[in-house]
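FORM 7B - TANDEM STRUCTURE REPORT

SECTION 1: FIRST PROTEIN
SEQUENCE AND C-ALPHA CELLS:
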Amino acid sequence: MPVVLPTFQVETAMLAAGSSCIIAIDEVGRGALAGPVTVGVAVVDARTGVMPEGLRDSKLLSEPRREAMAPLASSWVARFAVGEATAAEIDEIGIVASLGVAGRRAISDLLSAGADVSGATVLLDGSHDWLTPALLWPLPVRVRPKADRDCAAVAAASVIAKVHRDTVMRGWHEQYPHYEWAGNKGYGSATHLAAIAEHGPSDLHRRTWLRAPA
C-alpha cells in the first residue's frame, strides 16, 4: 500500500476561508501504561513556507527519522508548544479530560509566548473534540480523522509531541531502569508488563489502567 503523503491543502483552504492562522493539534501517549499524555500544537499561517521534505505522521517515521525531523518541523511552523497531563491526573479525571488539560496547557504556553490566536481555527486530529470542554477561551475546533497522516501542520505537531514525550520517558528511565522505558516509552511491552509484575507500579504509572491492584 503506498504511503499517503501529507499536504498543506486543508490548511490553505481554512486560511482562505478566513482563519487568521491554524492551530494544528495531535496527541501522543494516549495508550501508554506509564508517563504523561502529551499534546503537540503547531501554528501555521499564510506566511508558512514549503513543508520539510520527509515530514510524516510520527507513527510512520522511525525513531532516528523522527529525531531528525523534529527540529525541522519546529522551525517550519510559526509557533509550537507541548502540553502534558500526568499519570496521576489521568487516574483522577480520565484520559479524555486529561487530553483536554494537556491541550489547554499547550495553548496557554503559546499565549504566554505572545502568540496572537485571534481569528484562529483549531485543526484537531481524530473524530472527537476533546479540547473544547477544557478551553478557557473560545476557539473554533475542526476535527478531522487521519489529520496527522494527511495534513502537514498536524503531522508536524505529532512529530514535535512524540519526540518531546520520548525524551521525557528516556529521562525517567534513568530513575526506573527496570521498566525499560527508554525502549518501550511506557507502553505495554512484554518486558514492561513483566517488570510491573515483579516490582509493582511506580508513581509514574497510570494505576487505574493496570489489571493488578496497586
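SECTION 2: SECOND PROTEIN
SEQUENCE AND C-ALPHA CELLS:
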Amino acid sequence: MQFQLNTDSHIQGDERLAQIAESNATSALGHLTDRLSRIEVHLVDVNGAKGGADDIQCTIEARPEGMQPQTVTHSDNDVEAALRGAGKKLRALLDNEFGKLDKRR
C-alpha cells in the first residue's frame, strides 16, 4: 500500500508528520489496509494564522482495489485529533462498503 501526505503552506509537512499520519491511518484502518492500494492524507489549516476552533481539516482518500476511491473529511483543533477523527470515519465507511461487497459474493 502506498501512502502520501499533502499539506498546505500553514502546516509543515515534514518526515515526522508523515510518519505520524501514516501510523495513525494504518492503525485506524487495521486489517482493511490489505485491501487498499493507496491512502492520501490532505491536511489544511482552514483559518491560516488566525487560529480558532476546529480549524485543522483532514481529508483522507482511500483507494480500495477494484472499487472507486472513498473520501472522508474531519475538522478538529489540532493535526493529530483531525487525523484520528478522519481515520475513524474512514474505517466506518470502508467497513460498510466492504461489508456490502462481501455480502454479494
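SECTION 3: OBSERVATIONS ON SECOND PROTEIN
The chain has one domain: 2-104.
Residues 79-104 form the longest helix (26 residues).

SECTION 4: SIGNATURE
Preparer initials: ____
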